[in-house]
């Protein structure tokens, strides 16, 4: 019984903190987070109201705190404090310069409310966590790309890009209505409506030479990033099948998931591997070339043609 009381007390405090973190919090959102029933959440909300917490609730919308109400300074557990360091290291390597600096500023504020023991733990952990990445996910000359994209997405303003497409000789200007950003295969991408192409496109952030805010409003209402990424008309996928020698399959266990790996079937000396890839995707073809002497393409035919074209263009043996 005592354990149940402590659990409920911790849940009430956590609910109050979550209510401070968002303008509106839905009952189902709280129930999912704490893995309890909606009835339990309703009872917890009533307990907070009875304790004097000024709450507003509207059926079908959610709960919110009266504007200006705040808890006393938040106290963090050792585990939570430790997680900040891992997050800070990741932010330093996997976001652009400006966003990394904003996070660093936020970290100073978080560290300022840590107790002595947590501060010592954080300082010790900083020495033992190191993250290295050889892949540059951003153009260093555009250190504020994510910041501008976040602002314009929220404000529903178009952004102007000077963008270097993969097969273009020179960068070109695009006006984009950003739907959102996503991280995939070690790169950041914008997904948005391109006014030049009159369609939804994705743009890799490291290929952006310049980015600027504009005063132009969005011309249409957009769904979420995941809505568009799941639509086949934007990312038409085709099935690719390979026969790969068993002795090299184990070396592909990690990378293959970046290239649309779907399934595998063991045979006598080979493994039949199935991928879902974008049509005419040179990225997949170039990855396949790394172990091409141990693999055979079953389908599609255009993948064979693409690899032949890449090999014909090779300059490795030129004098």
State Rg.
25 Å
**Tally the helices: what do you get?**
11
Shape: globular
Class by SSE composition: alpha+beta
Tell me about the largest β-sheet: 5 strands, antiparallel
Strand content: 25-35%
Q: Could you give the order of strands across the largest sheet? A: 6-5-4-3-7
**Tally of separate domains:** 4
**Would you identify the regions where 5 or more consecutive residues have pLDDT less than 50?**
none
Distance between the termini: 82 Å
CATH architecture classification of the largest domain: 2-Layer Sandwich
Give a structural overview.
With 319 residues, this protein is an alpha+beta fold. The chain has four domains: 2-65, Winged helix-like DNA-binding domain superfamily/Winged helix DNA-binding domain (Arc Repressor Mutant, subunit A, Orthogonal Bundle); 78-126; 159-229, no CATH class; 237-312, Alpha-Beta Plaits, CATH 3.30.70. 39% of the residues lie in helices and 25% in strands. The protein has eleven helices and eleven strands. It has helices spanning 2-21, 27-34, 38-50, 78-94, 97-112, 116-126, 145-155, 225-229, 246-249, 282-289, 301-313; strands spanning 55-58, 62-65, 157-163, 172-184, 187-194, 199-204, 208-217, 237-245, 261-266, 270-278, 295-299. It has a five-stranded antiparallel β-sheet with strand order 6-5-4-3-7. Strand 9 (261-266) and strand 10 (270-278) form a beta hairpin. The model has no long low-confidence stretch (mean pLDDT 83).
């Amino acid at each position: 019984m005592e354990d149940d009381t402590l659990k409920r007390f911790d849940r009430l405090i956590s609910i109050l903190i979550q209510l401070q973190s968002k303008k509106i919090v839905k009952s189902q959102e709280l129930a999912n987070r704490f893995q309890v029933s909606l009835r339990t959440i309703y009872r917890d909300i009533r307990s907070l109201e009875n304790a004097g917490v000024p709450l507003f609730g509207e059926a079908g919308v959610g709960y919110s705190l009266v504007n200006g109400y705040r808890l006393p300074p938040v106290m963090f557990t050792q585990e939570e404090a430790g997680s900040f360091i891992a997050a800070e290291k990741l932010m330093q390597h996997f976001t652009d310069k400006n966003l990394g600096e904003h996070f660093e500023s936020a970290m100073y504020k978080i560290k300022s409310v840590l107790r002595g023991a947590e501060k010592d733990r954080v300082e010790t952990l900083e020495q033992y966590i190191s993250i290295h990445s050889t892949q540059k996910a951003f153009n260093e000359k555009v250190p504020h790309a994510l910041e501008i994209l976040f602002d314009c997405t929220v404000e529903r303003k178009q952004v102007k890009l000077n963008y270097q497409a993969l097969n273009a000789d020179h960068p070109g200007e695009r006006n984009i209505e950003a739907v959102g950003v996503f991280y995939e295969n070690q790169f950041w991408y914008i997904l948005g409506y391109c006014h030049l192409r009159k369609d939804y496109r994705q743009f890799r952030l490291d290929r952006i030479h310049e980015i600027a805010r504009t005063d132009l409003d969005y011309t249409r209402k957009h769904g979420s990033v995941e809505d568009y990424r799941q639509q086949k008309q934007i990312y038409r996928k085709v099935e690719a099948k390979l026969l790969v020698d068993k002795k090299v399959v184990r070396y592909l266990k990690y990378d293959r998931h970046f290239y649309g790996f779907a399934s595998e079937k063991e045979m006598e000396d080979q493994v039949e591997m199935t991928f879902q890839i974008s049509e005419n995707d040179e990225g997949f073809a170039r990855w396949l070339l790394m172990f091409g002497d141990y693999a055979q393409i079953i389908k599609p035919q255009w993948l064979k043609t693409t690899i032949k074209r890449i090999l014909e263009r090779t300059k490795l043996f030129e004098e």
